[in-house]
Amino acid sequence: MKYRHEAKQNLENAKASLSNPGLVNAKYGALSLRMSVEALTYDLADKYQDDMPLSIIDTWQPRKIMAEILEIDPYAGRPSTLSYGREPALGKTPEVFREIGTETPISLEVIKKHYHALGSFLHLPTLRQIKSDRQQDEEKIRRRCNELIGGIEKILSSTAWNINMGNTSTMKCECGESLTRRLKKDGKPRDTQCPHCHQSYRLTDIGDGKCEWEPHTQKITCPNEDCKTVEYVGNHLITPGNEFICDTCNKKYKIALGVSPIT
Q: How far is Cα 235 from Cα 203, in angstroms, rounded to an integer?
């Protein structure tokens, strides 16, 4: 499916509905804009498809998809300009650049601000709203729609799109999920999380085309007085009720909240 075309078509449908008076037309406008946001999110996700786990690809919620895209590439959702120039010498910055185009992609901020708000306009009034005589406000719907229309038009007026460049690293998480992440452009470490089991990692570019994935863990000493083996347990597992087995003495323990006396 050509999602960008779908976004444009739904934008035009929204404008046509909103050009006519009445609450029903305002709602149709909100519905079409909501679908335009979905199409733009799916269009952005398409270029990260090889990097995303199937559990995310199969979902339809734009907010979840965008959150995973930002885990892969923290710079996704930001405007970017593609330019080129001739190097005066190998590895030297060109003195003159020629611009190919600029892309303004859909952002998580736009999704958070408008997507669910639009969805709330598409439901019938609840019993509580009817009893309190709180009817749906047509003007409120139209103001929200008109605000979003400007943002979508800016995205669709980009002179380049689907710009996709960066250094990536791939690793299989302990849960079996394959994770692909972009390294930060400034070379600094970055933190990320598996969307399946929620194990978190710190990625560090160690040079020579290699990347280190360091799991975030907590140091736990086996309570068995005859053992005292030090275990490193993932941060995502440090929650009350979770159990773990000591690798040395094979005793099972349960993580619980602790209380200490105040002196």
A: 16
CA separation for the pair 85, 99 (Å, rounded): 9
Residue 225's contacts (CB-CB under 8 Å, 6 or more residues apart) are: none
Pairing of strands 80-84, 98-103: antiparallel
Q: Which of 133-146 are b and which e, b meaning 16 or more Cβ less than 10 Å from the residue's Cβ?
A: eeebebeebbebbe
The Cα 253–Cα 135 span in angstroms is 55
Euclidean distance between CA atoms 94 and 62, whole angstroms: 39
Alpha-carbon distance of 97 to 85, in angstroms, equals 5
pLDDT 10s digits, 86-138 = 999 988 999 999 999 999 999 999 999 999 999 988 887 777 777 776 667 89
Strand partners, 182: 168
- Domain spans in the chain, listed from the N-terminal domain onward: 3-156, 168-214, 218-254
Task: Note whether 7 and 152 are within 8 A (CB).
Answer: yes
- What angle is formed at CA 59 by the lines to CA 55 and CA 60, rounded to 5 degrees? 165
Does pTM surpass 0.85?
A: no
Provide the pLDDT for residue 196.
84
pLDDT at 10: 97
* In contact, 155 and 106? CB cutoff 8 Å: yes
Cα 48 to Cα 57: distance, rounded to the nearest angstrom: 10
Q: Quick: pLDDT tens for 54-79.
A: 667 777 789 999 998 898 888 888 99
Print burial letters for 158-175: b (CB count within 10 Å at least 16), e (below 16). beebeeeeeeebebebee
By the 10 Å C-beta count (0-12 exposed, 13-18 middle, 19+ buried), 132 is classed as: exposed
